[in-house]
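Hi U.,

Before I forget, here's the chain from the pilot set. I'm dumping it here mostly so it's searchable later in email.
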Amino acid sequence: MFCFLVCLGKTFDQSMMFRLLNAIERVTSLENAIGTIEANMSATLALILEKLGALDQKFEAIRKVEVYKMAEVDFDYHKSVIDTHFKELPVKSTNAVEAIDFSLQDNTLAISLVFFYVEKFKTVKTVNKLFYLMLDFLVSKEVSNKMQWKMMPRGKDSRPGMAGLFNLLAVFGVAARTFAKKKGEQLNEGRIQQLVRDARKTHAREFRATSRGNEQAADDAPATAAGATQIQDNDGVTLKEYIDRLQALVNGFSR
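Structure:
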């Protein structure tokens, strides 16, 4: 009886050991299978992301063409929208500049002004000249001389500022980015701010050159190269939100 129990115990141990080894083998096979699946999924995901990236580039190229095409085809429409809202341009007062910014809360007007700029100034050679012309279309040189960039007064300089006119800056930004993309360039928010700032300074200097008794303002010194890519007054994040929103509206425009 004792020998029988011993043999039975050994048989039971061997059976359990066999089952345990079999289970371990299955788990190992399952882990290997999972590893293979994960590797395949990673490779597939990487391929999908690569394809999506290429597709996005194609869509971006199409959008660039479409924006210029829509600007050309619907130019008369966009011009009529602008003429309806703005009876006299360029404006002759700083209050009128602020009124333009307020008016550009109207999506239809903002979109039309972007398309108008894209078509009207499509033959311009440089982005600096583009900003010069965009500002010149809306604001007289005398008014540019009566404004500064910063929104807060500095010392004796209490001129109203342009840095907080986000609706207007967004229109400039979207139109300029469309122009720059055609040339294979990119404009970040800091660069856009600096280009507006430089355009205003140029207008102001040209006005003073033809008028007596107008001294150079403190912020009208030539811009440094370092300032060309820096975000002014920490408003870059806010401006980006305005530009991104308007860009989406322009991309989705249809009549």
